[in-house]
Amino acid sequence: MLIDPRDAFAEQGSFVNALVGLVGLARMVRALADQDGHSTPGGGQPDEFVHLLLAVVSLGDAVDRLARAAPARAAEVDAAQPTPAPSTSGAWLR
Amino acid sequence: MSVPSAEALLGLLVELDRIRALAVELLERSAPRLLPVPAADPQDDARTAYQLLVGARRAVIGHPAAARGLHDLLIAEGRRYAETAAGAQLRDTLARSEAVDHLRRIWETVSLNVLDGPTPPSGVPDAWAELLADAITGRGLDDAVLARLRPEGFA
Hints:
By secondary structure, chain A is mostly helical. Helices cover 67% and strands 0% of the residues of chain A.
């Protein structure tokens, strides 16, 4: 029986999976930027590809802010789970 | 003239999309270089990477107008973010990064640069049409077909 439609949607929602994927990509781009000692000599000009990566970070950060701004209930649910899985779409939607 | 019903128009769109998907599939068979053959016995990681990259290429080549539209939207968002202090700092770091250079090469290989350059009002990038023309002519046009179209005595 469908008791909590949000839970059901959280497990099935491909939209939420896409948001989670976006956050993952944003973290990957930040990890690329954080790699010290692997810079191109002389530096490069920011081209369209760099701006594509920046857009991924910007959108990923926006999704991250959405998740952090979730209602207090989400914090209670997370507190009840000693090992939360923030990378799953269910946890994000809740 | 009677106007088709919404249901009929929807059915037409579905059928057009099915035809588009079939045309892309046939194109990949006609120009095999667009669909590289996977390694004979790939490791799991290699198979996953292959499927991911081929999927990305299919998304770009099969939906050029949509891919270009999304590409332009993302670049606009990236430029907007670069106007902020945090975005500008990240932009400069990424522009210097050797890892980003590697990633750029992967993206250019996968997308074959079909999203770059000018785009007519139809939304389909010129580079996309040029790539497909190159892929087909590079394989070699069947001259027997052209010979039938050529008037006798015509060089």
